[in-house]
Specification:
The protein contains 30 helices and 20 strands. The longest helix is centred in the last third of the chain and has 21 residues, at 615-635. It has an eight-stranded mixed β-sheet, sandwiched between helices. The protein has a six-stranded mixed β-sheet with strand order 1-2-3-5-7-10, with helices on both faces. The chain has three domains: 4-279, Alpha-Beta Complex (2-enoyl-CoA Hydratase, Chain A, domain 1), CATH 3.90.226; 313-492, 3-Layer(aba) Sandwich (Rossmann fold); 499-638 and 670-701, N-(1-d-carboxylethyl)-l-norvaline Dehydrogenase, domain 2, CATH 1.10.1040.50. The radius of gyration is 28 Å and the shape is globular. The structure holds nicotinamide-adenine-dinucleotide (NAD). Nicotinamide-adenine-dinucleotide binds at residues 317-323, 341-343, 347, 398-401, 405, 409, 426-428, 450-452.
Length: 709
């Protein structure tokens, strides 16, 4: 295999990496061996004065190390050997004694950026495809081919930590502003400009680099300032990871160690800690999630999926909270024309303004240009009639959660839209079949269940009935993806997937409070366990009325085990609906939370702190209510696989990623052990914890949800 093509002209060696039979460039064993040899030759050949490193792929420079090689690592020693080899190779670039220029177009990530950082000079194309970053911590590892050493020396400690600790990927412009690349050029002249830079560098010219700016230099050059920078970063990392994700803190130590003891010591630290992390549980789970989401991106949720139909025009019925979010996100992410419809001009105006704020936010974050902002804003329109809906390829309904209102809207829509138009509902609780029952072509009807706030929440549930056509499903999935969502196809069962498994968890939280468990302590416990917020905070965010309505629907469908907590009804009746009404369990002022509203306990009929339930039991009751329900729903075929269920829980609820999802958690706990816990909870707290029959079966047969792991 030859991955590199080399030509030498005018004393400049041009190395073009184009990994055969692969859509992207990545650093494989083969690439490393070949590059090693090439570097050797360049070093020996006195006629070569400089090197330019280019990619032969259209969309990637180097996307990173080969993840398959990484996954195949079995022992710490293997991991250590791999990373030491990579470091040695990359170290050879600056040691060549000849300038090396990286000409970057397309993804330059992880090991790809670490190689580029070891070059003398970096040019990048000003192009959407050019993305520069160190995403390692997102896979539970750290940049270990010199990234934790070279980046802070190039752009300053604070700026480097900002990227490394969050695993950030930046657009080319932003990488240039931060000093990671030296020059931005148009793609058409990348090679020419790289050759020019190589000639200049060979002639002795050196770029002047600010090295993180004056402020950074002042702060970071003195030991006390530096210690302060690290202390602050450490505090932030601790707060963010809750101690569950070791990689960011380790990366911080690798940076600190290298600055204190020198690059070589820093590299040793990187290698040793990479080896520990690479074979650790957290990294393994994060890598699995990465593979699962990658696989989901190619999965349309139906067997032999037909080609999705193009969507250029989107209609949104209902310009309320969700309708505006859907419209604004669709226009910014997918660039489609969006038409909002509501019953009054005031509602339309409010919806359009909210949708525009999403477009504005993209501009503020410099993700789009002023020109694009103007264009996207102009693609948003609205009215009180159905004008514009005739040409829509897809309509998403987001009117009140009321079957009669939805029926009326869909009937009107059916008379209005074209033959090919797909009709979707954003309902959170109404079965899609009950909506489509009154329509003449139910095969084009499905659910597109977005989560709030739409522009931020990464999950979309596409709900299909027994009648939904594969073409409608594939089109909705493809469009959801264009909106930037991870899409999971689920069956039309009450609560779909996410609300189905969330409801028993939230009910149990309500029950615990009613039994006298103190609210803040309860939330703290589950946050410490790894959820982004505690269950009571989550209830306040969702809205107590909305939560009660959803759990009532599930109660009706599944009976006693889903019975909502009685006290919640009294709270809703008192008008305390959560954050949106200024108070629920907690008090809110100007959008900020102000502690528990103690009067809630009397309203529910309990006293805080009166319970003597051990923390471990509180945690198990909450967690196993969710896990057990997940098994029941999986058994009913609500999701097609444990993978889909786990990913939807992580992206829809914020289920702790380091645990891999609810079903994966059960595998890790051991199915027989999980059944034991549920039996114990049943005896102590009631029949709602009766182990799901499938779980009992699996325990008896020694099965797992993921038999291959
Ligand atoms: P909302 O009250 O903010 O918005 C509903 C809008 O629909 C209002 O502006 C109303 O004027 C409009 N409307 C009513 N009848 C209409 C008609 N005939 N034609 C056009 N517009 C009409 O409600 P929301 O929170 O945006 O919820 C909308 C839907 O989304 C509901 O089905 C809800 O269950 C679902 N949903 C909500 C959330 C959430 O967190 N709020 C999350 C997921 C799904």
């Amino acid at each position: 295999m030859t991955a590199f093509t080399t030509t030498v002209a005018d004393g400049i060696a041009r190395l073009v990496l184009d990994l055969p039979h692969e859509p992207i460039n990545k650093i494989t064993r083969g690439v490393r061996e070949e590059l090693e040899q090439l570097v050797e030759e360049v070093a020996r050949d006195a006629a070569i004065r400089a090197v330019v490193l280019l990619s032969g792929k259209s969309d990637t420079f180097i996307a990173g190390a080969d993840i398959d090689e990484f996954v195949a690592l079995r022992t710490r020693d293997e991991a250590y050997a791999l990373v030491k080899g990579g470091q040695a190779l990359i170290n050879r670039l600056p040691a060549l004694g000849k300038p090396v220029v990286a000409a970057i177009h397309g993804a330059c990530l992880g090991g790809g950026l670490e190689a580029a950082l070891a070059c003398t000079y970096r040019l990048a194309t000003e192009h959407d495809k050019t993305k520069i970053g160190l995403p390692e911590v997102q896979l539970g590892i750290i940049p270990a081919a010199g990234g934790c050493q070279r980046l802070p020396r190039l752009i300053g400690i604070q700026a480097a930590l900002d990227i490394i600790l969050a695993g950030k990927t930046l657009p080319a412009k932003s990488a240039f502003r931060r000093g990671i690349v030296d020059e931005l050029v148009h793609p058409a002249v990348l090679e020419r400009e790289a050759m020019r830079a190589a000639r200049q560098l060979a002639g002795g010219w050196r770029p002047a680099r600010p090295g993180g700016g004056v402020k950074a230099a002042l702060l970071e050059k003195n030991p006390a300032g530096r210690a302060l920078v690290f202390a602050l970063a450490r505090k932030q990392v601790r707060a963010k990871t809750g101690g569950h994700y070791p990689a960011p803190l380790t990366a911080l130590q690798a940076v600190e160690h290298g600055l204190r003891y020198g690059v070589d010591a820093g590299l040793d630290f990187e290698a040793a800690s990479f080896a520990d992390l690479a074979v650790g549980d957290v990294s393994r789970e994060l890598v699995r999630i990465f593979f699962a989401t990658t696989a989901l991106k190619k999965d349309f949720g139906v067997a032999d999926a037909p080609e999705p139909r193009p969507v250029e025009r989107l209609g949104v019925a209902g310009a309320g909270f969700m309708g505006a979010g859907i419209g604004g996100t669709a226009v910014t992410q997918a660039g489609v024309d969006v038409r909002l419809r509501d019953t009054s001009l005031t509602a339309v105006g409010k919806g359009l303004a909210a949708a525009r704020r999403i477009v504005d936010d993209r501009l503020k974050r410099r993700r789009i240009s002023k020109y694009e902002h103007r264009r996207l804003t102009a693609q948003l329109s609205g009215g009180t009639g159905w004008a514009g809906f005739r040409r829509a390829d897809l309509v998403i309904e987001a009117v009140f959660e009321d079957l009669d209102v939805k029926h009326a809207v869909f009937r009107e829509l059916e008379a209005e839209v074209g033959e090919e138009c797909i009709l979707a509902s954003n309902t959170s609780t109404i079965p899609i079949e009950r909506i489509s029952a009154v329509l003449s072509r139910p095969e084009r009807v499905l659910g597109m269940h977005f989560f709030s706030p739409v522009e931020k929440m990464p999950l979309l549930e596409v709900i299909v009935t027994g009648q939904t056509s594969p073409s409608a499903t594939a089109t909705a999935v493809a469009f959801g993806r264009r909106m930037g969502k991870t899409v999971v196809v689920v069956q039309d069962h009450p609560g779909f997937w996410v609300n189905r498994i969330l409801a028993p968890y939230l009910n149990e939280a309500g029950r615990l409070v009613a039994e006298g468990v103190e609210i803040e302590g309860l939330d703290r416990l589950m946050k410490r366990f790894g959820f982004p917020v505690g269950p009571i905070t989550l209830l306040d965010e969702i809205g107590l009325d909305v939560g009660l309505k959803a759990s009532s629907v599930l109660h009706e469908a599944f009976g006693d085990r889903m019975r909502p907590q009685e006290g919640l009804k009294a709270v809703v009746a008192a008008g305390r609906l959560g954050r949106k009404s200024g108070g629920g369990f907690y008090r809110y002022k100007k959008g900020k939370r102000r502690g528990v509203d103690e009067s809630i306990y009397a309203l529910i009929g309990t006293q805080p702190g009166s319970a003597t339930i051990a923390d471990a039991d509180v945690r198990d009751r909450l967690l196993y209510a969710m896990l057990n329900e997940a098994v029941r729903a999986l058994d009913e075929g609500v999701v097609r696989s444990p993978r889909d269920g786990d990913i939807a829980a992580i992206f829809g609820i914020g289920y702790p990623p380091f645990l891999g999802g609810p079903l994966r958690t059960l595998d890790r706990a051991g199915i027989p052990q999980a059944v034991e816990i549920l039996r114990r909870l049943t005896t102590a707290y009631g029949d709602r914890f009766t182990p799901a029959p499938r779980l009992e079966r699996m325990a008896a047969d020694g099965e797992r949800f993921y038999p291959d792991d």
